[in-house]
Amino acid sequence: MWRSLSGAQRALLAGGLLVNIGTFAVYPYLAVLLRERLGAGMAQVGLVLGAATLVQFAGAPFTAAFAERVGLKRALTLATCLYGLGALAYLGGVAKPALMVAGLFLSCGAGALYSPAYRGYLVHSATAGQRPGVLSAGNAAGHLGIALGPVAGALFLHRPALLFTLSAALYAVLTAGHLLLRPERPERPDGGGRAAEPFRRVLRGLASLPFTVTVVTHYLYTQFYQYLAVFTEGRLATAVHGLIMMGYSLGLAVFQPLLARRTGAARYPVAMAVGFGCMAAGMAAFATGRAAGVAAGAVALSAGTAVLFLKNDLEALALSDRSATVTFGRQRLAVGVGTSLGGLIGGALYGWFERVELLPGFWLALAVQCLLLPPLVLVVARRTGRAGRARRADPPRRAGPVTPAGPAVNGPGRGGDPPPPP
After folding, report:
1. What are the C-alpha distances in Å from 190 to residues 25, 42, 194, 241, 336?
2. pTM over cut 0.70
3. What ranges does the record give for the region Disordered, renumbered to this chain (predicted)?
4. Which of 220, 244, 298, 371 is deepest in the core (most CB within 10 A)?
5. Is 42 helix (H, G, I), strand (E, B) or coil?
6. Quick one: what percent of the chain has pLDDT higher than 70?
7. Are 283 and 367 in contact (CB under 8 A)?
8. Is residue 79 helix, strand or coil?
9. Fold of 207-385
10. CB atoms near residue 97 (< 10 Å)
11. Predicted confidence band at 414 (pLDDT cuts at 50, 70, 90)?
12. Higher per-residue confidence, 90 vs 389
């Protein structure tokens, strides 16, 4: 697969890796930094982080449509410029706390533009058979950056000025590198894309099944990512939990390219059964609360999400009549919806199990949801699809005036044609 990639695609994979290292060297520690700089409580910090996340995910369909219009190379270059401005705002926030918030929103806006343009550039010239490998390579580079970024950030956490200076320098180099990318060829209609539509119609023709499955995937995944640290506090050493989470991200970077060909060839229900089945096994293993069980659960969850993250995007590409870039923007919106639901519903559910002192039951409840929600989504999708086909096969008749028997005087009945149906 690596030999089949073009030089521009390989360069962009390196860019995606470095962008995520720069982003996740800062992002996991923002809650701490914002609380220290702003002197605010966690409720206020959570509100700021939630609003920034909303900008990043809800704006993705519109930033993807913007990238479709201006060109992917220009969009990628602009996004890295915004990342750099965000790093400079973080640096200024060491002295002026308001700039810290501005840097957060600049970085989230940059992510909303970079992510769909990055994936769109990788697959825009790939055939349907090449897409699983190319897309999995792009995802693997991103997940490797997510795994290494927090480690790099931890080295400079107590020297934030140096951290933000290095981040700004990294993004300056990346901006120059993206300027050297080869401009992409416009997508042809027979290649899965068509002329750009107005921004108000960025969701027109949405492929509902992969969108919904993506929401469910991230609804479940978010609860693992957000609440496992709270659950393991007092059960595992902090270093052990950190190693397990890094192993999860590295597992994604390894599993997805290894499974790319089989994932691409599998039918969607089969891929869902494998992916959600692995997620269910992983959630159940977390309930043990022991290092071996949590580590085994992370491995199972890594394999399951590797399949689902890739297959959801491939199915969305196959069913979409818009460009790959806009399709990835829609998928980012689905990720945002699922993440929000995971935070809201998962937080309430975790709190209930905590109050009744049955916290392992939280993970067992998630395992049950992993097994029940996907079949429910498929059943609803099939019934909705049958209803839609029935409506198209039997369109409603237009009402018209009742015409008496005999030769028609006016309208379509003239010349001996039969009168129109009532």
Report:
1. 41, 51, 8, 48, 30
2. yes
3. 388-422
4. 220
5. helix
6. 85
7. yes
8. helix
9. Growth Hormone; Chain: A; (1.20.1250)
10. 16
11. very low
12. 90
